[in-house]
Structures are given as structure tokens and as C-alpha cells.
What we know:
Helix content: 25-40%
Structural class: alpha/beta
Shape: globular
Strand content: 15-25%
Bound molecules: fe (ii) ion
Number of strands: 22
Largest sheet: 8 strands, mixed
Amino acid sequence: MNILGISCFFHDAGAALLQDGVLTAAAEEERFSRKKHDYGFPQHAIDFCLRTGKIRGQDVDLVVFFEKPFLKFDRILRSAMSTFPWSRGVFSESMITWMTEKLWIKDQIRHKLGVDESKIFFSDHHLSHAASAFFCSPFDEAAILTVDGVGEWATATYGIGRGSDIRMLREIRFPHSLGLLYSAFTAFLGFEVNEGEYKVMGMAPFGQPRYVDKVWKLVNQESDGSFQLNMEYFTFHHSTHQTFGPKFVELFGPARDPEAHFFTTSSGYPSYFGAKPAGYDALARQNQHYADVAASIQRVTEEMLLKMASHLHRETGLKRLCLAGGVALNSVANGRILRETPFEELFIQPAAGDGGGALGAALVGCHMVLGKPRDFVMRHAYWGQEFGAGDVDTFVRSNNIAHTRFENDDQLLARVVDHLQAGKVVGWFQGRFELGPRALGNRSIIADPRNTSMKDIVNTKIKFREPFRPFAPSVLVERAGEFFDLPEAHRHHPARYMLYVVDVKDGQGERIPAVTHVDGTARLQTVDAESAPRYRRLIHTFGQATGVPVLLNTSFNLRGEPIVNTPGEAFSTFSRSGMDVLVMGQHVVEK
Ligand SMILES: [Fe+2]
């Protein structure tokens, strides 16, 4: 039984293939098309899934699309009509794209896959998110919370999962959206919506939440967690290019210039920004205001999610919670939900955004359409394309790339650890690439976290990221408790996917300064032998040499590019950056 899930035409396009109820392959289209957040029809991702499952389009028994296009179109038309004439732009733009492409998704799937119309099913956007969390979790029964920008009408849902069924309890509807509230601030702070939300979260610890009261003017939350936005402040419901309006600017001042560097007195001014600008002190003070705004929206988001989760706990009485939807990538809020609500265990879909909606849609098809029992737990995120030793060998030989091929993996790991201890930055490429936005040791750039200047080194050589963005630690799961405030780390699935921000323990921040954020926290990845055996051995070898079984792990890409997929992309990224060493499976390339 082959079930293909598809998501596209909104944020991140993706595809996922279930075979006899078990996940075979899942990937986002951007990794193949090399267009970041590609939302077009995911032809490459679908082809990859079919290839991996050794089937053709005609062999697919059921295709499930992650949302209902007609309901979504209905929402867009109705909101455009209710805000006419301001919505003139949205109206004409959406008529063109919907009439020419999006509404005919069924025909596209039929033609491109060669499947009969009767085999195509449409899930519901938030049901797909809910399924991507609950049906991937190890839980028989759990409360489910989904929160994102918007689906058809829903922007957040409460639900319950039991066995192979999900029951939705309640939804919050557009235009009242926590995801769109956060995105309005993302845009205000000078970052790209649906991309810069991490930057807002990273910027927040540099500020004080002194504008929390002002943020609460924009949104009102009830005791049951439901909320309404005060639409006087927003324009996203009738504009294609602007999310906040003049009243918003009256409240928080002018928006930050997207072209200007962000730095405060505490972030410092990194060398890769160039020479310090004239009026440095005044600029740092001005930026402090924006950091305070970031801290304030982050704080309100956390409070809102805590209230929603707490209510869901009261209503269901369940001990476990599943989370999905783009807002579930807010790992600071996730850490607080674990610590501050009565839920004892969480499962969060690592591809919590719309790319993971494809996986959720396939699972809806399997369990809720076909009624099959559950036989799958998602224990890792490595569902993308793999390149074997043969592929890498062909690539390095045909391109005359000087390399060493290690037959003995212990020798290779020892060599890499020597490089890391010498302050080198290493591209680490192996196995199948990760599903979701995080690199978890198969398409990663790694470095020594003990080195105080390593953050600047990685930024100067490769990432050119803003100085307020932290790098994450990968730690052996059994040693996580020594460094981080996460008791019984092995019980916490979300930590495998860098989905919790927790405190670094007192005194341990000095041991791993390059991965400790300014507020003494870290977005850790726990690494275990079952889900990531070779990456684990690398960290273990580094731990034996240094006493610190932790690596700095950041995604294998240059700024603004999708994470690499092929050996060719890895080598190109290595060549165009200041990376010192590239490991591709058993092959090591040194600059
Ligand atoms: Fe979504």
C-alpha cells in the first residue's frame, strides 16, 4: 500500500511516501530545486520519494494533498471582499494565481503522476499538521496543539489523538493568528517573513520585554487560550506586501531598516561587518529598542502558547502533548511548555511547517481515510536523499579533487577530531539529509564549542550571520544532563530535533562558550546511538579527546541558500567558503 502526501503552493512544498504504513522517504522541494522555501509543485521531491520506494506514479494507491484549496480560496475571497477597496491588490493577484494554478491541483496531480482522480484525497491544513505530530509520536493518546500563520480558515487548533484517530476540539480562525502576529513583528524588525522568525527569537535575549503591555494592545486572550487580534494594527488581511499598519508604527516607532546591521552594546560589532560606522553608540542604542521589541513579542508569544497548552491540559486531562505548525518551531516557547505546564512529555514534528504537512497528509490518508492501524514512530529526521561511497568516489575522481579515502572509520574520526581541536571548521556530510529546517549531523558544519571565538570564526568564514544568532550544540544524550538543564534527556524526543531551548547549567557555559547564548541558554540536539550512530561516534571521539562530548552544529549551507543535498553542492559550498575540511562519508578533503 503506497500513500503519497503532497504540500505546495503556500510556504514550503514537500512530499512524503508511506509504504504499508511506514515512512519510506520525505523531503522538501527546496533541497532539489535549490530555491529556498520553494512552494511550487514538488515534482523533484515526489520523484525522489517514488525512486526511494522503488515505485512509479501509477503504483501509488492514494495521494493526499495537505489542505483544501477551495476552502482556502473561499477564505481569501471573503476577506478580500470584506476589506475592499484596500484589498484590490490581493484580490486581483489571488484571482490570477488561484484561477490559473492552485484550484486545479487535482488535475496537476492526475497528469503528473498518472493516477486516477478517485485516488486523490484532500486533507485539512491543520489536520495535516496535527497528524504529522501525533501519528509520528510514540504516544497512544495525546492532546494536540497546532499553531501557524493560517491554513484554510484555522490558524490554531486543539485536538485529541487516540490510536489511529484524531478528533478536533476547537479552532481559532483567520484573521486571528499567532503566527501572523509574530510575522508582523518579524517584518517590523527588518526580517523576511517565514524565514526571519528565528532571528526575532535569537534577538530577543539581547533586549528587555519592556513593551509587553503595548503588544497586548494588539491581541486579547481569553482564559481558554483563544484570542483575537485587534485588526486596526494590521494590514495582512488586505495587503500583499505589508503586514502591519500606521497604528502599529505609532505604537512601536518606525520599522527597522532591513539593510542596516543589527548590533547592540552586548552583541558587539563583528569583524565581518567591516569598520564600525559613524555614530556607533547612537546606532547601538537605537537597535536596543528593536531588541526590546523582539523580547516583548517573544514573551507574549510564550505566554499565549502557555495559556493555550494549559487550557488544553485542563480540558483533556492528558499527560502528553503533540505540537506542530510553524509556531511549534519556537524552541524557546517549547522549552517553557515542557517546564511550566502539567504536560509531562511532548512530541513536536521537526518539520513543523508546511513541508511537514505532506507527511501529515499521508498519515491522514493511511489512518483516517483507509483506517489502517498505526505501525510507525518517527525516531529520527533522516528521510532525505542519500549518496553512497560510490557516488562520492565518482564525484571526487571525475572532478580531480585531492582527497583521502579512509577504510577505517575510527581513523577518520580521529583525524576529524584533530582538525576540530586545531580550530578548523569541518563540513560533515553523510547519509540521508534531514526532513525539516534543522541540520542534525548529516548535512552539518561542525566546530569546537569550547573555543570562545569559534562563533566569530564560523561566521567570518562561512555563515556571515547576524551576531545575535546563536549556534547550537550537539551533545551525547547520556551526557546532556551534565551541561544542560534537561533532566532525563533521553525521554525527550523534541531535543533530538533541536526543538527545546534550555538553560546551560551553572558553570558549564564557560566550557562551551561558542554554543551558549547571551542569556545562558542553548538550543540543544541530543544525539543517541539508535537514531544517529556515526554522528554519535564522532561526538564521543571528540569527548574522549577533550572531556567535552559536545560539538557546535550549524546547517551545511551558505547564507540565503538551502541546505546542501548532493556531494557536488557540498563541495561547491566548501570551495566558496572558508571551511577548512570537508568530510563526505569516508572521503576527507582538506584545504
Ligand atoms: Fe501551516
